[in-house]
Amino acid sequence: MKEEIKNLIELQTIDLEVYKINEEMRDGLSSLDLRRKSIEDDKKIISDYQEQLESGAKRRRELEVMISDEEERIKDRQSKIMNIQTNREYQSILKEIEDTKLANKQREDELLLLIEQLEAMENKIEEIKNKCAAEEEKIKKDSTAVEHKAAKLEKKKKDIVKAREAQAAKVNKKYLKRYETLKERRSGLAVAGVAAGVCLGCNMNIPPQMFNELLREDEILSCPTCNRMMYHQPEESTEE
Ligand SMILES: [Zn+2]
Questions:
Q1: Among the CATH numbers 1.10.287.1490, 3.40.50.1260, 2.60.40.10, 3.40.1030.10, which is that of 16-170?
Q2: What protein residues have CB closer than 5 angstroms to ion ligand 1?
Q3: Centroid of ligand 1 to alpha carbon of 15 (angstroms)
Q4: Strand pairing of 191-195 and 229-232?
Q5: I need a labelling partner for 137 at 20 to 30 A (CA). Which of 13, 25, 202, 238 fits?
C-alpha cells in the first residue's frame, strides 16, 4: 500500500506541474486578449467621437451660413430704415433689426460653444489614438514574448507528459480511475495528506477510528468530507 500511495503522490506532483504550466499559458494569452479588447473598445469610442465631430461640423457650417445671411439682412434693413416715411414702419423695421440681432447673438453663442466642444473632441480623439498606438506597439512586443514563453512551456509540458505516462503506468488501474475522477472534481488535488487527524485537502478532522485505519495502511481510504484519497503525513514533515 505504501508503494501505491507513493506512486499516486508522485503522479499528482507531475499533474500539478502540468496544471501550473497550462495555467501559466492561459494567463499569458488571456491578459493579451484583455488588452486587445480594451483597444477595440477605445477604437469604438473614437468612431463615436468622429460621428459626433461630423454632425458638429455640419451644424457649425449651418450656423455660419445663417449668421452671415442674417447679418446681410440686418445691413439691408439698416439701409432701408433711412428712407422710411412713417413712424409705424420705422418702429417695425427697428424691431426686426433688434430681433434679428438677438437671434444672431444666440447663434454666435451656440457657434462658440460648438467650436470649443469640437476642439475638445478632436484633442480627445488624438489622445486616445496615441494611447492605442502605443499600446498596440507594446502588445506586439509582449505577444512575441508570450509566444516565446508558450513555446518553451509547450516543450516543457511535452517532457512532463511523457514522464506522466510512465508514472501513470505504475499506478494500479483501480486507483488510477479514482484518482482521475477526483482530480477533475477537486481542481487537481486528488490525494491529500492527513496530519494530526486533519485532512490537508479540506482541513477537516477525520474520525479517530479512521485515522487508526489510515496508520495501518491496509488500503487507501477516502476523506469523509472531501472524498480525496488520504495518506498519513507524519507530523514532522508539516510546518507546525
Ligand atoms: Zn478531506
A1: 1.10.287.1490
A2: 199, 201-202, 223, 225-226
A3: 19
A4: parallel
A5: 25
